[in-house]
Amino acid sequence: MQPDPVRSKLRAIQYYYIDGTFEFTFGGLCLMLTGFFFIQATFPESLSSSLLNLALMVVIPLGAILINRLIVRFKEQVTYPRTGYVAYQSSQGSQRRTRLALKLGVSLIVGGAVAAYITRAPKALDWMSALTALAFGLVLTFIGFRSRLTRFYLLGFLVLLSGVVLSFLGYGNIPGLVLFYGLTSLILFTSGGLTLWSYIHHNPPSDEAADES
After folding, report:
1. Residue 44: which of 108, 117, 116 has the closest Cα?
2. Which residues contact 61 (CB under 8 A, 6 or more apart)?
3. Confidence class for position 88, pLDDT limits 50, 70, 90
4. Which positions ≥6 away from 161 have C-beta within 8 Å?
5. Which of 7, 99, 108, 111 has the most neighbouring CB atoms within 10 Å?
């Protein structure tokens, strides 16, 4: 009996998210953005703030590369010895599209926030927490739809809820983004930690991997 290609593709997609490392990657990016906007809120209209605006285009991509390498190393040491290595196609299909969507989404959101801040239009940021939450929520919901993993629907809802609540509470502007990215990183790290714990608990290392170690 030939394997169902649709089910095989779905299993390959789900395997990419099996150990919670995706949440750690996304959460790490949000944590960097928390620090960035915290400095913006602490030192407004300062030389440090202006330099950070210029450094943003370098710091976030480099941070994303570093986090990705750490995650790859983690998978090599923890995930693959337990459940094996899946060789995706060279285009990496949905994995590459997801990464591209995340990078574009973060770049557009952060770029718009910084542009509005530079042009001294704080009113444009009053709803930035909610708008950012909507973008992130859509991305997470899309991942849930593609992977059929319900935890991403819950993540999308929690992220969206946090952004909308922060906007209604009147934090606004840069402080609202600081709180939003901080809460989002906490939500993602919690999900990643619980997923990783469940994965390790249900998938002990194989005998061959244990002998090699």
Report:
1. 117
2. none
3. low
4. 133
5. 99
Q: Are 167 and 130 in contact (CB under 8 A)?
A: yes
- Contacts of 71 by beta carbon, 8 Å cutoff, 6+ apart: 21, 24, 25
Read off the tokens for 114.
């910084």
52-76: pLDDT as tens digits: 666 766 777 777 778 778 888 888 8
Q: Which residue has the tokens 């469940």?
A: 198
Tell me how far apart the alpha carbons of residues 49 and 45 are, in angstroms, rounded to a whole number.
Answer: 6
Q: Residue 13 has which token pair? A: 């997609």
**pTM: predicted TM-score of the whole model, two decimal places:** 0.79
Other beta carbons less than 10 A from residue 123's beta carbon: 9
Q: Read off the tokens for 51.
A: 């330099």
d(C-alpha 52, C-alpha 172), whole Å? 20
Residue 180: CB partners within 8 Å, gap ≥ 6? Answer: 129, 132, 133, 162, 163, 166
* C-alpha 86, offset from chain centre: 22
Closest C-alpha among 134, 183, 163 to residue 31 = 183
Determine the Cα–Cα distance for residues 122 and 124; give it in Å rounded to an integer: 5
Angle of helix 173-202 relative to helix 128-147, nearest 10 degrees, comes to 20
